[in-house]
Amino acid sequence: MSIPPRPIRPLWVIVGFVLSGLGFVGLILPGFPGTVWFVLAAAAFARGDPRWEAWLLSRPVVGQLVDDYRSGRGMPLRAKWFACVCIVLAVGLSLGRIPVLVGQVAWMMLGVLGVVYIVWRVPTKRG
Fold first, then answer.
1. What span, in angstroms and rounded, lies between the C-alpha atoms of 23 and 19?
2. Helix 35-48 vs helix 50-57: angle between axes, to the nearest 10 degrees?
3. Pfam families from the xrefs (predicted)?
4. Are residues 48 and 21 in the same domain?
């Protein structure tokens, strides 16, 4: 990943902190994934300031999550189940709030694609 010009780097650091904040919220709130935000935050920090990326990766839980993703080890089976159940619940509980049928179908398809992606494309971490 190439480092952007110097004036843009602080923006990447700000984006990294916002994404990190969402990731930490995801560690606390059930049903709100944290890993994806940390992976994106690490990428943003890498573009903005590698010292912040190193700081994020040195966090006890976060560093392992990002490392597992980057190395292709994937997610534990329990986490995959949890993610899929959360997608199904989120889509099911919010479907009635979408006023038009086309939007409901699109929302359902997005949920199905999310589950399919997790089941078939995300590797299952062993051990």
1. 6
2. 150
3. DUF454 (PF04304)
4. yes
